[in-house]
Amino acid sequence: MAKEKEETPQVSRRSTRYSLSNSNTNNGIETEKLNESCKTTLDNLLFGQEPISLDDLLSCFPGRRVQILEVLRHLGPINSSMPPMFIYGSASTGKTSVVLQIFRHLNRPFVYVSCLTCYSPRILFESILNQLLLHKKNAANGYSSAKKCEKPSDFINLIREALINVIDRLNGNSGKMSTSKSKGVQVNGRMIYLIFDSFELVREWDKSSTILPFLFGLADNLKMPKVGMIFISNTSPNMYHSSTGYIDPVPVYFPEYTEEELRQIFMINQVNRKLYSSFLDIVLRPFCRVTRRVDELSTAISMLFKKYCEPLSDVGVVPNEEMKRKLFSHLQPHIAPSLNEIFRVASQSSLESEANQETRRKGSGRKSVSCGDFDEIDFHMSTSAKYLLISAFLASRNPATLDASFFDSTGGSDGRKRKRKSSEKTTGKKEAAEQELLMKGPGTFALERLLAIFQCITSVGEDLLDEEDEVDDGLRVGGGSNGLMSDVLLQLSSLCNGNFIVKGASCPLEGSTRYRSTVSEELALKVPKVMDDKEAIGKVIKIDTFVAIVEDLKLGLYSIYNQHMLEQVGGLFLVIL
Amino acid sequence: MGRENRSAEEALNLLRSRLCNPNFIFKPLSDSPDSNYSKLKFLVSSSITEACNNSLLLLGPRGSGKIAVLELVLSDLLLEYPDTLSVIKLNGLLHSDDNCAFKEIARQLCMENQLLFSKMASFDDNSQFMIAMLRECGLAHKTIIFVLDEFDLFAQGKQRLLYSLLDAMQSVTSQAVVIGVSCRLDADQLLEKRVRSRFSHRKLLFLPPSMEDLQRLMEHVLSLPVESSLPHDYTVEFNGKLKNILADERFKEIINTYLNSDSTVNCLLRFLFRAVSYMDLESGFLSLENFKTALSNIQRQPKQECIKDCSILELYILVSMKRLEVKEQNSYNFNSMMKEYKTIHDSFKTSDYYAKNVCLRAFEHLLKRELICFTDNRGYNQSIEFRAVKLLVSSVELHQGLKSYRSCPSILLKLMEH
């Protein structure tokens, strides 16, 4: 029983995205097998699943044949030493999966550490030692490591000791094992391999200038022919800088998949291959122009495939030419919008809304589909937070000097006219300002300014409500009353936590913290839209103010607001009128 | 057939283990009397026999076999003078901190002399222990050899370790040799005055071997021993074929192109290892083809590969940034790049015009690929769109990459040529 508990995390630890998706079905059987074969603890250093044959290995990874063979050649026959190997290639090209599956195929012992999870030297060292010493963190030992080790100088002594120990046991083991060959899984060979994944992250560490050459030179330092080192990295070896250099490990390159290889990858595990291949004919080419990363493509494509199958009553059907054409014309309007959408995971609320949107969409026809569900924010926000977000956005995007003209109803128009004249005269100046805005991004503002704008906006809201004689149903945000101020500050801090507003460095003169809104124009425009009808944007921002902003847009000061957005704003404006 | 295969595998294993064993490699290079091996051995053994102190530096580029030769010398001397020699090894990467270094020295001294090492001992304790041990060993006519790998790193900071080591060697009672190993040729210039004046300034320079030496080395490493468990006729045939390859002009050309960039021994070994690992186990012999593939696989062009990995959209972004640079816009960010991208689209009506967030994602990919990077670390709290960026590929590289890209839009090539 205890062993079972030990083994199950083992499987998950060694499984990458690839093996997780693949081994779900037969996981149960395999863990059972493992428990039977788990006689010696050295097995913990193996991959932990039934070894696969070379043919299986090659067929698992379409387009990685050359790379797999190259890595296998470098690892060489059993018990043969090797210089350090450096595997590199961009994200999602199967580096980690291939290496781990190769070790499953070879069934040789290895230690796998990822510099992503082991984010500091201490954790990295202790994780390696724990694995080598076959130490498991559990409640009994208070989840502590086998050895405390922070400095490389301690680490080298400890790891040498541990490696000698393991290699001795491997030597004894293989002698013993050869007599009783009936066991299912057994350790192959007397080499032990250290695999460092996500090695590029080490460059960001505090003491990277010494840690990096140290890890690269670990093999030289240990001088143990029975230890192999494998580095897996996103970036090529020439991106590792060091003042006095180091011995380059032997590089192995994993290129990005080509379109044809991607097709083969997506065809794996498909039930209705004919249907899926006709689907890929349409979809894969346009998507490959944007990205060739398997992880991003698979999320985007799986959503589209659902769409593709919508008209079909039976998913198992083999499509003929006519049906293909029909399905194509059904899917075509969806391709372009989904290309322009970053590949996102549907959140809970949008999943829910999808159900009720379905009915609406069918009625309204094709056109609304393209923009329908992107116009809403798919998270909840309190009303005062929304007001606050808008005021932060305004404070960040507008210079403080324009505040008076925007929010003061008396002095507003004069200021604007003057401004227009000057800007018409000097187009060069305007361009410079434009350029500056592009470069500088949203500006910072003091808390006082934010609160002032907030007050302006909300008080207008109240005024309007009074004018229109609507029932003030206990407006959520008290415009003038000081009692609610603390509530607003609370909202502000939660917006800061949500990264909508960023706390910048404090101003050297005033000493107070300055804020900056990180919200994009698109989102800022969505915020008023999703407020319910009573709080439409016209009531939020005083009409005067709004005119001022739209005027400025026309002046071209905000030419980053593209034409599309201008229309949106104008449209809203008309609605209000 | 099965027997053939097995002997081929055995031969492969032998070659691989040789290539990973520096002692085997440097043995034949150290025969001649004016080799570094002989000089080093003479220096160290004379200071052992004459019971005096000495210090020297081994300098040379990485991979030129400084440590390997030193190891050879030390193992020989340990055989010659088994009882009167103890070796303390330190590495600048590990022990550049003085505290750490003294602790390690104390630990190794305790190990050598079967003493109990206390982890809790302070810096002072350890340094006094070391000096006391030096005196004791001097009285017992035992020589302690300190090997300081990555010597330049010990010269950082206050150089207390170097000072106390070299200072202890000024006394007649002690008997020690300090050997510094560094790939910085100016390592002795890094020393403080008080340390430099106590240093002997003996230097041994490790130069890359000549072409003839390398030729001899390759033959020595790759040919199979006649008297071994391998079948005799297989060995003879293997060695015969190897001779043919080594004499081949094409092979010499391959080796020359490879060694043009870096001609140290270690570099050559990596290449040979790669070639040997491509050995065909069916036939069991090395071929010229093996060396060719090894050359193409070991000499990589990472930037070109990176550009080949990019998607079309990412190429558009790179070209837009290139155009901004040509316009001498001194700093630009994602937003200005988007503007350029839009003007390209407007003037050429390309089919690849994507929304801003998609481009931003592609932009992030480029950052990850390290084809572009932020110009400064300022503005961490700014969002990515607004931070200034720069290209990490030259326009020549980019142009070359685009030309070799399989289905590069012709418009991009046209834009690059202007």
From TrEMBL, chain A:
GO terms for cellular component: nuclear origin of replication recognition complex. This is Origin recognition complex subunit 5. Residues 61-218 form the Orc1-like AAA ATPase domain. It is found in: Nucleus. Keywords: ATP-binding, DNA replication, Nucleotide-binding, Nucleus. Residues 9-29 have a biased composition (Polar residues). The keyword ATP-binding applies. Residues 1-32, 405-431 are annotated as: Disordered. Residues 276-329 form the ORC5 lid domain. Pfam families: AAA_16, ORC5_C, ORC5_lid. Belongs to the ORC5 family. GO terms for molecular function: DNA replication origin binding. One of its GO terms (biological process) is DNA replication initiation. SUPFAM superfamilies: P-loop containing nucleoside triphosphate hydrolases. Residues 381-529 form the Origin recognition complex subunit 5 C-terminal domain. Its main location: nucleus.
Automatic annotation (TrEMBL), chain B:
Its main location: nucleus. GO terms for biological process: DNA replication initiation. The keyword NADP does not apply. The keyword GTP-binding does not apply. Residues 56-202 form the ATPase AAA-type core domain. Gene3D superfamilies: P-loop containing nucleotide triphosphate hydrolases (3.40.50.300). It is found in: Nucleus. Residues 217-401 form the Origin recognition complex subunit 4 C-terminal domain. Keywords: ATP-binding, DNA replication, DNA-binding, Nucleotide-binding, Nucleus. It holds the Pfam family AAA. One of its GO terms (cellular component) is nuclear origin of replication recognition complex. GO terms for molecular function: ATP binding; ATP hydrolysis activity; DNA replication origin binding. Component of the origin recognition complex (ORC) that binds origins of replication. DNA-binding is ATP-dependent. The specific DNA sequences that define origins of replication have not been identified yet. ORC is required to assemble the pre-replication complex necessary to initiate DNA replication. Belongs to the ORC4 family. This is Origin of replication complex subunit 4. It comes from Acer negundo (Box elder).
